[in-house]
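The instructor's notes for this session suggest beginning with a concrete chain rather than abstract definitions. Hand out the sequence below and ask the class to guess, before any prediction is shown, which regions might be ordered.
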Amino acid sequence: WEYCCSYPAATSLRKGIMALALDRAELEGQRISRAGYIGPVTSLHFLTDSTSILLAGCGPFVRSFVVASGRRAFADVEALPGSRVHGFYSVGSVDGAERVVVWGQKFLSILDVPTANDSKQQIRVVLPSVCLEDWVFDVILVKGKQLENAVDAELYEQYKNEGMFAVGFAHNYVGMFDTKFQSCFCRSFSTDRSLLYSFSFLHDDNGVDGQLAAASGTIYSHVVVWRPFLKSAESENGKEVVADSKLTGHEGVIFKVRWSDGADEIISVSDDRTLRLWRREESRKENEGEERASPFSFRCAGIFVGHSARLWDGVRCGDVLVSASEDCTCRVWSRQTHLTETAINKRGTEVSKLLAHTGKGVRSIAVKGSVMASGGDDGQIKLWDVLEEVERAKLAGNSPNGEGETSIAHHTFAIPSLPVDLAELAMKGEAKRGGRAGKNKKKRDKKKKRDGEM
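After discussion, reveal the predicted structure:
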């Protein structure tokens, strides 16, 4: 402090301040402006009430696109400042717009997205970003019998008309979120307290016998199927619930789990490079006149092998399954598998291989009818007609595409649209968005120089 107050230091400080003032005056008309976030597409969602609008999560931003043309539908919205969008959930229609819940990491926000592509309308933030107690993996609006089973009588009377949001958290528990107080009440924990990388509610108004149902993908290679808030002999108040099923077989972290075909199927994808299909077993009797203790059980119906890197997402599209992988491809699989106890007979058949994104993996996929959108780490979104791919594979003799054969994407659009080809930069390793290729190349060049090769 004494040195800073000395005369030479004070003089230098004054000169520095004057130089900064001059620089600011000179650059007044050349301010550096933010052009847009460039990064992976971590989540995709087709609006339920509109077949023409696609939402994309890119960093903290929600971006909207017209499906037919790929152009922007509305202005970008920074829904989760300082976070990254990982999921969407459509609640329903409100005054000509679709209410959508957006979440990522520990944050949650609610938006109203116009269903008509009108330049005069814009996405409206209904609930600004709220920080919750744990990482959020799924959200669902709970009403009726499911809400009555989840909360006490007083809360049920208060919210029975508008409902409450159930939130699935990373430590395998569910909390009822109140938008007014912006906090969670009435938590229900699974007895399997494994850390999760994925969580999925059964999106059915009736649930399972009027009860919420959930599938949890753990870091310990198994999927937990359970009914939050279920009151039973083991848990009279529903605060700690015993799992109905524990699905084992994967050999890596479960990165995504989804319900398919109502409550009868579950899709899981893993670090072990496989997609697995689980089908619900019929309730059977263990002894004469005695019902099995847990009728909500599943068994593996198909193992789908073919990707060369870990899988990030998987979804059902009509009569086929689609998986998205870090190996830059999406693969289409037949759901018809031989339901025997021998694992080799459960191997699913690859119908088609979509060489989706360049240089980096496919991070997310979404389906609307036969149209599938894929979002990649290369900052691009591609649209595919899955049924067309299936028909093309049939004409080719039910064989997957060749190693160099590229399936046709009906639309491709970068986020944002820039004159620079981001995919090409990613391939060359010049993009500094988390890639290591550029740094590794510099190290190799230095080594060659030292060895006298350059």
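Then share the key points. The CA atoms of residues 231 and 238 lie 5 Å apart. The first strand starts at residue 41 and ends at 46.
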